[in-house]
């Protein structure tokens, strides 16, 4: 997911997407623990997407429109 796509989302959409990504990360970590993870790089990608969403949410809170 690109930063430009995230910036276009509303606050409700950002919250919903953040919950989905956190659930996905939990499932990926669980799969990794039982050695059934197909793509270990997906964990890194999901963590970065979570960080991007949190950054945009914080920018919105502060009123920064970068």
Estimate what percentage of residues fall within beta strands. Answer: under 5%
End-to-end C-alpha gap: 18 Å
CATH top level is: Mainly Alpha
> What would the principal axes of the Cα set say about the shape?
elongated
Just name the CATH architecture. Orthogonal Bundle
* Total count of helical runs of at least 4 residues: 3
Work out the number of β strands. 0
Summed over residues and divided by their number, the pLDDT gives a mean of 93
CATH topology name, in short, is Helix Hairpins
Structurally, the number of domains stands at 1
What is the succession of H and E elements? HHH
**Low-confidence runs:** none
Return Rg in Å.
13 Å
Structural class: mainly alpha
Helix amount, in percent?
Answer: over 70%
Write the layout of secondary structure elements.
Layout: H1 3-7, H2 11-33, H3 41-62
Helix pairs in contact: 2-3
Protein model, in words:
With 66 residues, this protein is mostly helical. The protein has a single domain, classed as Helix Hairpins (Orthogonal Bundle). The protein contains three helices and no strands. The mean pLDDT is 93.
């Amino acid at each position: 997911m690109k930063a430009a796509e995230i910036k276009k989302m509303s606050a409700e959409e950002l919250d919903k997407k953040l919950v989905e990504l956190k659930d996905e990360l939990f499932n990926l970590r669980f799969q990794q623990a039982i050695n059934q993870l197909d793509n270990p790089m997906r964990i890194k990608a999901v963590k970065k997407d979570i960080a991007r969403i949190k950054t945009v949410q914080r920018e919105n809170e502060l009123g920064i429109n970068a």
